[in-house]
Design brief:
Layout: H1 8-22, H2 27-33, H3 42-54, H4 64-73, H5 76-90, H6 94-103, H7 112-124, H8 130-135, H9 144-160, H10 170-175, H11 178-185, H12 196-204
């Protein structure tokens, strides 16, 4: 059902009132990002809110809207299977997975194949310990092709040329927005490493150079 087809008095208004009663931190943002939530029967919405909280995400958290989106799109069985996947793949406890999900609920929406490729890269190429990844779940939300692989290539080039502070971790490089990353780690080295910008662009396009610049 679309928002225009839903009853204003019987469905939309009661759902908005429910969100406020539930203590949702930013009702306007949640309704803007997930407007379709307002079209469900209020009892269903209450169920979604309960399930989102059960993931360890409090209603006041800015991550709550993401948790709601996940439970709406995934059954209880699918969510349970994904939690078990993280425990098995990363060798962590149930409580550790819960903490990771509370920080980044969106990771529950990725396919096992997508997540496994990222985990394998982070462990085998970026030399990260599974526990380190669990404590920084945003790493699993980044694009492997557009962010993780290209930035890792840049890091290795700069390290080999002695142009990267030894205290700068790969995780640090992944956190910057695209514009800031290029300014701090590519553009400022255009004279000392003239081919770096092209190599980075090629990596983002899916072609990681086989040799260092």
């Amino acid at each position: 059902m679309t928002l225009l087809m839903a009853s204003l008095e019987r469905v939309i208004k009661p759902n908005i009132a429910l969100l406020y009663q539930w203590g949702v931190g930013d009702v306007v943002r949640l309704c803007t990002d997930t407007a379709w939530l307002l079209t469900f029967n209020p009892e269903r919405v209450k169920e979604f809110l309960l399930r989102a909280e059960e993931l360890g995400v409090p209603p006041t958290s800015r991550m709550f809207r993401h948790a709601v989106a996940v439970v709406v799109d995934n059954s209880k069985e699918k969510v349970a299977a994904k939690l078990e996947f993280f425990e098995r793949t990363l060798g962590c406890s149930e409580s550790e997975v819960s903490t990771a999900v509370s920080k980044m609920p969106a990771i529950l929406g990725f396919s096992d194949k997508n997540l496994l490729r990222k985990i394998e890269f982070l462990v085998n190429e970026a030399a990260m310990e599974p526990r380190y990844i669990v404590e920084r779940p945003v790493l699993l939300a980044y694009s492997l092709e557009k962010r993780l692989v290209p930035r890792h290539h840049v890091m290795k080039v700069l390290q080999e040329k002695g142009l990267l502070n030894s205290n700068t971790s790969f995780y640090t490089l992944t956190k910057f927005g695209e514009v800031t990353f290029k300014l701090k780690f590519i553009d400022c080295h255009k004279d000392s490493v003239p081919g770096l910008a092209d190599a980075y662009a090629a990596a983002r396009a899916g072609t990681v150079p086989s040799s260092r610049i």
